[in-house]
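Example record for the data management plan.
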Amino acid sequence: MKLVKLLANLGYGSRKEVQRLIRSGAVTDDAGLVLGENDVPPHCRIRFRGELLDPPAPLVIMLNKPDGYTCSSEDPGSTIYDLLPPRFAQRNPGLNPIGRLDKDTTGLLLMTDDGKLLHKIIHPKSNCLKVYHAHLDRPLDGHEGELFASGTLVLNSESRPLLPAKLEVLGEKEALVTLHEGRYHQVRRMFAATGNHVTGLGRVSIGGFIMPTGLKEGQWQVLEPEQLASVFA
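Corresponding structural encoding:
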């Protein structure tokens, strides 16, 4: 891929803007040699204003989503794209969340520009379980685990029962919930069906991948191949 198309696909500007940047000497190799429009050096050797280029497609990143951010660029207010470099919104192919988190739900969110991977992770046959950490308004009654695991719980306004889910009690008002599916506001509605209210909710893992403890709210990192493999473990 020629340099102009590569940089444009990575979101550094339109093709015309990238051409101007290249002609201004903003793009060099790792030895400082100014590159031309038709140069095609290895990706790892290209520098934009002295900095490494963003990773090429296919790209997967992990984001520790804070409260108050939506997962769609079309939603009003703050979105997850505000937490990424502005040029990421211009990448081609674009980055999309792998399963959304509600505005008031925090935690692990994976994003990718690989459509096949996205569908592979969210497809039920992948068995990529999602684990959520829930804080509750009042103490658990003790019957919630049996109800969630029964496969008979029908949420309000729905007719199809939920797949069995696992509940792990962490405290009188705190629990982990493991889901095999991802319906609208599912964890919140499950606890609402028991007469309780979720006051805080965060996703801690997808499949076999657990969000690193060092990744603070609002921060993101590229998911390395071995980490991606653990999603399907």
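Summary line stored alongside the record: The first strand starts at residue 27 and ends at 29.
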